[in-house]
Amino acid sequence: MLEPPKSVDETQRLMSLHSLRILDTPSEDRFDRITRMAQRMFGVETCLVSLVAEDRQWFKSKQGLDACETGRDISFCGHAILGDELFIVDDASKDPRFADNPLVTGGPEIRFYAGYPIHGPQGFRIGTLCLIDSKPRVLTEDERQTLLDLGGLVEDELMTLSHSTVDDLTRVANRRGFNTVASHMLPLCERTGTDVELVFFDLDGFKAVNDELGHGSGDEILKHFAGLLVKCFRSADVVARLGGDEFVVLVAGNQLCSDAALKRLNEMTMEQQCEIKSRLAWSVGRIRFDPKRHGSVESMLAEADTRMYEDKEHRRKTGS
Questions:
Q1: Is residue 168 domain-resident?
Q2: 298: domain range?
């Protein structure tokens, strides 16, 4: 079996995938419509929208399959994202790259595979629209074109999703994007016993910056601060701009990294003051997710907001 190698642009590819905040989110009809249509049009047993992450492929939409993900090391899609052309295997049992693959020798006994490499909004190949069947098959030219057309529809939906959940100015998640991910992540973390922390930021004196230096300078500071958050926190953490000068980060994991991230943020803020030509300061509120106390994302945000204003008032009184 040939394991799929990593792409030459793997780091940028993964950043593009994570920026969509789509991994491990609920199924959506916008993608299910396409996989249902493809399954019927091609008469295959399985059709997937598969997203290829660091060490797994996760299925945003699936028809004819119960599993939610498989390892990247045995995936066909890991091979498909290495090029821009359709990746087609007519009979996997006769292909030396896949003949002893456990997905071929055991269930679902894949023989036919055809994958369209899906490009994210930034142009990187982040997954596939793929057709799978337990019988060998050869696609006609018309069928190939149909798969190309359907793959383009998936890319259109990803573009729409990106525009609706990403803040136009800072390119981190917007309030809608944050709420979408958090409303899925919190119940998941509650079930698995995973720790979650919400870190709520508000820039100090931001109105004065806009008044004195203009909104153009204010926009540059917002973009700069968003970039610092992305650098200081992990790629798996959810960084979002709620609106105005308010930002949040949702951190999950059995070893929370907020202390280290805030230390890095303080250090980088001090080092880069000269770059933004203005004093960059912020107040912060932090809370741990407690399912008994936080019945919704909004209740968690409200408590973190209160903690942030307590910090702001303390900073005002002490001049720190």
A1: no
A2: 175-318
Mean pLDDT of the residues in the chain: 90
Model pLDDT for residues 47-99, shown as the tens digit of each residue: 999 999 999 999 999 999 999 999 999 999 999 999 999 999 999 999 999 99
Q: What is the CA radius of gyration of the chain?
A: 23
Residue that wins the pLDDT comparison between 74 and 185: 74
| Whether the bond into 136 is cis, omega within 30 of 0 | no
**Contact between residue 194 and residue 252 where contact means Cβ atoms under 8 Å apart:** yes
Give me the residues paired with residue 52 across strands: 57
Q: Mention every residue, 6+ apart, whose C-beta is less than 8 A from residue 249.
A: 198, 199, 201, 229, 233, 237, 238, 239, 240, 258, 261
Which single residue is written with the structure tokens 């899609």?
Answer: 77
Regarding whether 126 and 34 lie in a shared domain, the answer is yes
On the question of pLDDT at 315 being above 90, the answer is no
* Stated pTM of the model: 0.64
Beta-carbon contacts of 179 under 8 Å, excluding residues fewer than 6 positions away, are 297
Tell me: do 298 and 266 sit in the same domain.
Answer: yes
Q: Are residues 281 and 254 in the same domain?
A: yes
Q: How far is CA 7 from its chain centroid?
A: 18
Backbone angles phi, psi at 35, to 5 degrees: -70, -35
Q: What is the pLDDT of residue 270?
A: 75
* Token representation of residue 311: 């910090």
Assign residue 32 the CATH number of its domain.
Answer: 3.30.450.40
For residues 256 and 260, give the distance between their C-alpha atoms in angstroms, rounded to a whole number. Answer: 9
* Integer CA distances (angstroms), 2 to 54, 80, 99, in order: 17, 13, 9
